[in-house]
Each structure stands twice: as structure tokens, then as C-alpha cells.
Amino acid sequence: GMKKNLFTLVRPGDSVVDLGAGLGPNIAYLPESLQYIAVEPNTYMHSAISDKAAAHFKDPQNLPTLILDDLRLAPSASADVVISTLVLCSVKDQRAVLSEVLRVLRPGGKFLFVEHVIEPSQGYPSPFRSFDW
Questions:
Q1: Of 24, 36, 43, 74, which one's alpha carbon is 20 to 30 angstroms from that of 15?
Q2: 87-106: buried (b, 16+ CB within 10 Å) or exposed (e) per residue?
Q3: How confident is the model at residue 90 (pLDDT cuts 50, 70, 90)?
């Protein structure tokens, strides 16, 4: 699917921030050898993220999984990749979140996202509408 193809841009050894990690569904699409940092404000989901990460990231050289409840806690210029799936639709201030994504990314880093919302000036989303990428 689309997410599987998009996440092929993540390379082994990358430092990855998973924004709005939820219960960890993105973990299965990532290489087994990388530094994984989950950002999930719902602390009740942290144990599920931790369990999925422990089962997936099998490389003994892998740095420990870090789980944060706020992206503002992540160090500046610390991530090669930030991934976000179906998150921006649920935040109040998208501009602030995207500013934080830029702060956390290293120079030349990648922001990989999948969304299902559309800019209001572009009209209303429709299953019959084609999107220009």
C-alpha cells in the first residue's frame, strides 16, 4: 500500500520520530535497525508501543526505543526522518506542529506523512476528486 511504499525511504540506521504513534502500527513498516522515538500524548498507549518496538527492532546494536508524550521534548536536529500518519487532522495548531517537525529534523531530513485532509481553500475532499501531487 501507500504507507509501505512511502516508508521505504526510511533507511536502516536512521533516527526516526513517529509523530502520533498511537498503538504503534507504523513500526511494522520500518527497518529492524534504527533509533525509534515514538511521540504519543496518550500515555495509556505507551506500553503497546513499547511491546511492538521490542518485538520488531531485533538488531542488538539498536538504540533503545524512546517514548515521549510531546514532540517539544525531542532534541533539535536529532531525527533523520519524522513520520506521521493521520495525525495532522487531529491537532489544533498544524502550523505549530509542523514547526516542531522542522526543528526536530536534521538538515536534509525527511518528513514522511499520510493524511486524509485537504486545505480549505482547495475545496471539500471527495472520493470522486483527483489530487494533483
A1: 43
A2: bbeeeeeeeebbebbeebbe
A3: confident
